[in-house]
Write a structure and sequence with these properties.
Structural class of chain B: alpha/beta
CATH topology of the largest domain in chain B: Rossmann fold
Order of helices and strands of chain A: EHEHHEEHHEEHHHEHHEHHEHEH
Largest sheet of chain B: 4 strands, parallel
Strand content of chain A: 5-15%
Radius of gyration of chain A: 22 Å
Shape of chain B: globular
CATH architecture of the largest domain in chain B: 3-Layer(aba) Sandwich
Strand order of the largest sheet of chain B: 4-3-5-6
CATH class of the largest domain in chain B: Alpha Beta
Number of strands of chain A: 10
CATH topology of the largest domain in chain A: Rossmann fold
CATH architecture of the largest domain in chain A: 3-Layer(aba) Sandwich
Number of helices of chain A: 14
Shape of chain A: globular
Mean pLDDT of chain A: 80
Number of helices of chain B: 17
Largest sheet of chain A: 4 strands, parallel
Mean pLDDT of chain B: 76
Oligomer: heterodimer
Helix content of chain A: 40-55%
């Protein structure tokens, strides 16, 4: 019987799951993922951390509790210090394994390798050896598994990017057609949904904001539309180095979005108390305001209420709509002003 | 930040620059800062912005700010401040000094750009002079921490210390500095004290800004002192200079004591906070107070780990987060309650009688500390409820600041 590794469906799952599934799969280890976030999971998570902690970390602890019951042999909780040169993830990611241990929540054996590529991009060997240590010591096998996994991850990212770029092409979907018939004409409106992966892809945490936007007839793109190289290029516009990977993603995506065609708006999703977003969002908003692109800042925490979000989204879309109508009706005939003065 | 200005001013004047010291931080400073900063930024940034605006009004032309390479937010302070001040129409030349940890030569080049004509020797001596001033101030402050709970007439020590700051600030060379230091030290030592008293010993740990700037932490250190506790602070300016500028003494750092609780650097002073907590606990202190700005990422990690440290060493921990909403009366009540709790713990042990609590000491203290933790969150959770209670929809639409203001108002409920 093969070993089972539990991966909580939280935080880094949303960015790196394909990588890990492939990696452990190659080693003959089964990966078990906790179910999608729900109210019980969140409530369980809140019990195990202090109030000041941000929502995603609370959700993470809930998923750990869930995996305790799932009959896995190991829990995979890597210490994600840095995944690229000169950029960290976030202090809370760095302290995550320690917080987990202090909470005494996990009853299972933990796999807690450190990945830190801040200084050198080659430091990942130690990481993969440690990750695989409970299962095999065979270096060749591990390295091969890692290569396969990297490819898998690359394919996954490529896929996301293609989808993001193709967004303009699939305007014929059923939902959108229906909406268009009913009088809504938002199908040419593109919304950039900015947020850390674990907020953007967790449908419970963000209350299905992506679906909501699609139902309002908007096309949604995320920071996945950027390749690494392009992001670096765009970031040159910013005078200092941004030392958070998620921050880099968001900022690069915004710079890219500036030259997106058509009507557009930006929705910034952040967690309450997120230190990274408190700064990055501010930088982004200043630049959006300068470019006259409408934006909406949604702050998430455990006091969720869907009604409020719906209202705000609709109001936001309406505002963009009015702006456009206003501009369209403001074509003066020769020699005289029409409409509003 | 706190008494840092004495050292920095000493250094820059020695090199031959004119220095404008912003007025001490007041409510106005904070209000100015809060008005112009991002809502969720941490308290030090807000105070910083307020300081810079006030200094500009006094005629400052250049601001010098330390940079950083993460993961703490501080590394982007300078950039954010620059942009905010620019929008406000304050023309500032800014110098951002990257810490020497990331490259010594680059650091020296930046210094050279600021100092202009001064020779390297002068610069070196200037840095040394500033460091000596910091050291003198810190030594006196450590002495003051011991005096506060014991002095017969409350406030004597602080008065002498304020005077000491002035004469240390006026010292122009190493000789004068030495003289003023010794003079102040002797004055402090001659304060009439209650020799019999055995005050509670409290370890004060946390984020560097709230440690060094009394206004940011609502003078917790002084308050504890006057309530009759001997406070030992984990961070002093001179330690910081020694570690970051002279790249020394890492071996003695509190960081080494953080394991096994916190085994990795988490940015800011998170690891030092835990490490210092462990050191204080091992040294037999009565309690630990952790102070941090609200939403400080490294300190939240430390906060999450503290209950475990507390359980293990049987030492109560009080966690206090400060931001612009923090009220003084609330802090006073909590500190008083905390000290009373510690005093109550101490009595039975002193008399050698049986512990009134049937469970072992360690367990009872851990309960006490979790109580403390939960009270510590009263303020902040109130902020969360009202700030985000509107269906998690606390934010703003472009060109409409109303939402933000409304959110602020509701916090005062």
């Amino acid at each position: 019987m093969s070993d089972k590794v539990g991966i909580p469906r939280a935080l880094f799952y949303h960015t790196y799951y394909p990588l890990w599934r492939a990696f452990f799969g190659e080693l003959g280890v089964e990966t078990i993922v906790s179910p999608e976030t729900n109210k019980e999971i969140l409530n369980e998570g809140i019990k195990h951390v202090v109030d000041e902690t941000c929502l995603p970390v609370k959700v993470f602890f809930g998923h750990i509790a869930e995996l305790n019951k799932a009959g896995v042999d190991y829990l995979f909780v890597p210490r994600m210090v840095s995944v690229e040169k000169k950029a960290y993830i976030c202090p809370k990611f760095m302290g995550l394994p320690d917080m987990l241990r202090a909470s005494k929540l996990a009853h299972l054996a933990l796999i807690m390798p450190v990945i830190n590529l801040v200084k050198a991009a080659q430091a990942e060997e130690q990481f993969i050896l440690e990750s695989a240590a409970p299962f095999t010591g065979n270096r060749r096998l591990i390295k091969k598994a890692w290569r396969v996994a990297l490819q898998e991850q690359q394919g996954h990212e490529e896929n996301l990017r293609r989808k993001a770029l193709a967004v303009n092409a699939d305007s014929g979907s059923a939902v959108r057609r229906k909406i268009t018939e009913s009088g809504w004409k938002n199908d040419d409106l593109t919304i950039l949904l900015l947020g850390h992966d674990y907020n953007v892809y967790d449908r419970y945490v963000n209350m299905g904001i992506m679906e909501k936007l699609r139902h309002l007839g908007c096309q949604v793109v995320t920071s996945a539309l950027l390749s690494r190289e392009e992001r670096e290029l765009r970031l040159k516009q910013f005078p200092r180095s941004v030392f958070w990977t998620y921050g880099r993603n968001l900022m690069g995506a915004v710079f890219r979005f500036f030259d997106y065609a058509g009507k557009k708006g930006v929705i910034i999703l952040s967690s309450f108390g997120c230190g990274i977003d408190s700064f990055i969002d501010h930088f982004i908003m200043r630049r959006l305001a300068a470019q006259k692109i409408p934006y909406l800042n949604v702050v998430l925490d455990e006091h969720t209420g869907e009604g409020g979000l719906n209202t705000r989204l609709e109001a936001f879309i309406d505002i963009i709509q009015w702006r456009r109508d206003y501009h369209q009706s403001y074509i003066s005939t020769y020699g005289q002003h029409v409409g509003r003065s | 930040m706190g008494n840092t200005w004495v050292a920095l001013k000493g250094m820059l004047e020695y090199i031959g620059l004119e220095v404008i010291v912003p007025p001490p931080i007041t409510k106005d400073t904070l209000t100015l800062g809060v008005q112009h900063s991002p809502e969720f930024a941490c308290l030090p940034l807000k105070i910083n912005i307020g300081n810079l605006i006030e200094a500009k009004r006094m005629g400052a032309e250049v601001f010098i700010m330390a940079g950083g390479a993460g993961p703490c937010r501080f590394g982007l302070y300078a950039q954010l401040e620059k942009e905010i001040l620019q929008d406000l129409g304050y023309e500032y030349d800014s110098f951002i000094i990257e810490p020497p940890d990331t490259g010594y030569w680059q650091f020296l080049r930046q210094i050279k750009r600021i100092v202009g004509h001064a020779s390297w020797w002068r610069v070196f001596q200037g840095v040394r002079f500033g460091y000596q001033k910091a050291l003198a101030v810190d030594k006196l402050e450590r002495l003051l921490e011991e005096i506060r709970p014991r002095e017969v007439v409350k406030g004597t020590g602080d008065k002498i210390f304020q005077n000491a700051l002035r004469i240390i600030d006026q010292a122009q060379n190493f000789g004068e500095l030495e003289e003023s230091y010794i003079l102040s030290r002797e004055k402090l030592r001659h304060i009439p004290q209650d020799e019999e008293k055995e005050p509670l010993k409290i370890g004060l740990v946390g984020e560097i800004y709230t440690m060094l700037e009394p206004y940011a932490s609502l003078e917790i250190e002084k308050k504890l002192g006057y309530m009759g506790a001997e406070v030992h602070r984990s961070i002093f300016l001179s330690d910081w200079i020694r570690e970051h500028l002279f790249l020394k003494a890492k071996a003695k750092s509190f960081r080494n004591f953080a394991g096994p609780w916190l085994n990795h650097f988490v940015g800011g002073h998170g690891q030092e906070t835990i490490g210092a907590g462990v050191v204080f606990a091992q040294a037999g202190f009565d309690g630990i107070v952790q102070v941090a700005p609200l939403t400080c990422m490294p300190e939240i990690v430390a906060h999450n780990i503290f209950p475990e440290v507390s359980r293990n060493y049987g030492i109560p921990v009080l966690n206090i987060y400060v931001d612009e909403q923090t009220g003084e009366a609330g802090i006073n009540t909590r500190l008083e309650a905390f000290l009373e709790l510690l005093q109550a713990r101490r009595k039975p042990m002193r008399k050698g009688t049986a512990d009134p609590v049937p469970s072992p000491g360690a367990v009872s203290t851990s309960q006490a500390s979790t109580n403390a933790v939960s009270t510590s969150t009263v303020f902040t959770s109130a902020a969360q409820v009202s700030g985000a209670g509107n269906e998690a929809a606390d934010g703003e639409i472009a060109g409409c600041d109303g939402g933000k203001e409304a959110g602020k108002d509701s916090l005062t409920m």
